[in-house]
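Problem statement: downstream parser choked on a complex file, so we are re-checking the raw output for the adenosine-5'-triphosphate run. The parser issue turned out to be on our end (a line-ending mismatch), but while we're here, posting the original submission so the record is complete.
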Amino acid sequence: MSEVLLEIENLRMHFPMYKGALIRKEVNRVRAVDGLNFKIMKGETLGLVGESGCGKSTTGRAIIQLYRPTEGSVKLRGKDLTKLSHSELHPLRRDLQMIFQDPYSSLNPRMTVGDIIAEPIKVHQLESGEAIYRRVQELMEIVGLDPRFVRRYPHEFSGGQRQRIGIARALASKPSFIVCDEPISALDVSIQAQVINLLEDLQNEFGLTYLFIAHDLAAVRQISTRIAVMYLGKMVELTSGEELYRRPMHPYTQALISAVPIPDPEVERDRERIVLTGDVPSPLKPPSGCVFHTRCPFAFEKCKKDVPEFKEAEEGHFVACHLVDDPERRKTAPNVTSPEAAKAAVHAMDKAFGPSLPESSK
Ligand SMILES: Nc1ncnc2c1ncn2[C@@H]1O[C@H](COP(=O)(O)OP(=O)(O)OP(=O)(O)O)[C@@H](O)[C@H]1O
Ligand code: SF4
Ligand SMILES: [Mg+2]
């Protein structure tokens, strides 16, 4: 059993909405993250997937304490970060870093690349004097940037190069955990694989642990050890990448997988699809019971009333759905998980994004 690096319990991040200028009164709250329970193992890449606005970035920020959570705990090697004051947190921040989605807006345009990368080294007093400059050059080399460009400004670099600057900045404080918040979605497809490969190489070299956020399942596939699926502030499923693609248990995950186009017309013809209707409800007023019940094709009475527990349905496979306790009803779920369909979905993703599963498992 590998070592737990982070343990997240009942994590909630609500953003209050106020009314009134003089007497501010809370009128509502955005339930961006609403009760997450999961662990991140040392050295793994946990992929975090879900539609826009489901709370992925907020989860990442609340874990590394860029946001102080409304409720719950985040334990780093057993120490609860949410209980620490700002000054107690400061030395631990060195260990927890983030790579941002947009390499254009996340770098200060008035700072040189050298100053951007040097900032965490100075803030955490890791080097002094000339050694800072040498460390910046070393970091530029590690991420594949020419150290001669150290005095240039972000606008003088391409999108892919800017993301490398963001990666160098995240690495500068020698962290053990990095939230990679959609680090490739703003980049050209041709550059995306390079950045993924760089992140994988860095993980192997420095023993890093990643939370890797993406919009869709295909994008996290190559890099993830395990994958978590989020819907409206809740985690609905979490298991290994291979298990998730072959045997998705939650109807939402099944819908995401059934939406992957398969190039084989025969398999495509026989496969059942789950087409989700309606929009994602607002996190200001999430539905009662299971938050997915307004769009779930298998919803039944219990789903409107009772919140399904996120629990280990099978070894290492966590899911939040009442169908798990109702095998008869579960049989009515469509055939997106038949061996042929699972194999075809994996094949389609291989074609689009390159192989990631070991040959023997295909
Ligand atoms: N600082 C904030 N104040 C108020 N609401 C916020 C704040 N940050 C996020 N939200 C809201 O919380 C919800 C979750 O936002 P979040 O950015 O975490 O989603 P996401 O899954 O990362 O989306 P995307 O894929 O578009 O990046 C959204 O409804 C968003 O509008
Ligand atoms: S609990 Fe009910 S509504 Fe929610 S995903 Fe399962 S079947 Fe669908
Ligand atoms: Mg986001």
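For whoever reads this later: The domain at 4-228 is CATH 3.40.50.300 (Rossmann fold).
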